[in-house]
Write a structure and sequence with these properties.
The chain has 13 helices and 9 strands. The chain is α/β, with parallel strands linked by helices. The chain has one domain: Alpha-Beta Barrel (TIM Barrel). Strands 1, 2, 3, 4, 5, 6, 7, 8 and 9 form a 9-stranded mixed beta sheet that branches. Helix 1 runs parallel beside helix 13. The radius of gyration is 19 Å and the shape is globular. The two termini are about 25 Å apart.
């Protein structure tokens, strides 16, 4: 219900814009996305990351997109997991690439959360399984809005082909699909370029690492625009000059992982297109509050 109210607020804002823009004219294209709320590994501040409860909460708490990190099992199944190992979230040890899907499915991917966050613990989190990408799509349907990351693609030869095969199977890309239902991101430019070569219509986000305040050159921007529609970086490296330069170039910018309202407000003031958060409910409150203020002052 909160998401409906937020979008109704946006429609009302458009109707009352002083220059009389119509809602249809204001419908954004992929390069005009604004105030996008991306549930980082689902609503992972409230439930075990990359599990169905986390994804379901991400949607219920008004996230526009769910972020899914992909790893690949020994028998070639794409699964939703952040790390190359199972160590951190299952209490067991091993590399995903050395394990079959059957072995992955025996793992408990929820109990760690109860132990780490006893104030948020729930009995239903115990025994949660690591989902496959297909299971996620089966659960949420072809209307899902997903930010999918190819994690460590150099470890998993053929990951990009398998990903596009699954997305085609569920009609999330290709003829008749919504252009912005699936956005693919990676720290690997090679992985993104492979995907772009296979299907130029898929929006791609290049993730970047900075160990100091972020800067970027015109030549770097030019290379990015050969295959990507935007960039992502850790929010602590973001700064107004960098964000302006990215935005002026026509690229989108999505900082990660932003969990405090003050930082959310700051980044939106600086002009980001959206952000990743473990708490989509917090970001939704910030975005709705800003919409209400604009309506009052319009």
């Amino acid at each position: 219900m909160g998401r409906i109210n937020r979008w109704l607020g946006m429609i009302a804002l458009v109707i009352y814009l002083p220059w009389g823009q119509s809602p249809q004219a204001a419908s954004p294209s992929i390069t005009e996305m604004k105030d996008i709320n991306i549930s980082h590994r689902g609503a992972s501040g409230h439930a075990p990351e990359h599990t169905f409860p986390s994804y379901e909460l991400g949607m219920a708490l008004n996230g526009d997109y769910i972020e899914i990190d992909l790893q690949m099992t020994r028998d070639g199944e794409l699964i939703a997991l952040h790390d190359e190992t199972i160590d951190r979230t299952t209490g067991k040890k091993g590399l995903v690439k050395d394990l079959t899907l059957e072995e992955i499915k025996r793992l408990d991917a929820g109990s760690w959360f109860n132990e780490a966050f006893p104030d948020k613990a729930k009995t239903e989190f115990k025994g949660l399984q690591i989902p496959t990408l297909r299971e996620v799509l089966d659960q949420f349907g072809s209307d899902s809005k997903l930010f999918i990351e190819t994690k460590s693609p150099d470890v998993y030869p053929g990951m990009e082909d398998k990903l596009l095969d699954v997305l085609n199977e569920y009609q999330l890309i290709g003829a008749g699909s919504e252009a912005d239902n699936v956005i693919i991101q990676s720290f690997s430019a090679e992985s993104l370029r492979k995907i772009h070569a296979m299907n130029e219509s898929i929006p791609l986000i290049q993730l970047l690492s900075y160990y100091a305040p972020a800067t970027i050159t015109d030549s770097e921007i030019k290379k990015l625009k050969e295959y990507a529609v935007g960039v992502g970086l850790h929010f602590t490296a973001a700064n107004p000059a960098y964000i302006k330069r990215i935005s002026d170039s026509g690229l989108l910018i999505f900082p990660y992982t932003v969990n405090e309202k003050e930082d959310m407000e700051m980044l939106l003031d600086w002009g980001v297109n959206g952000m990743f958060t473990n708490y989509p409910d917090r970001l939704d409150e910030v975005i709705r509050g800003r919409i209400e203020k604009r309506m009052i002052h319009s």
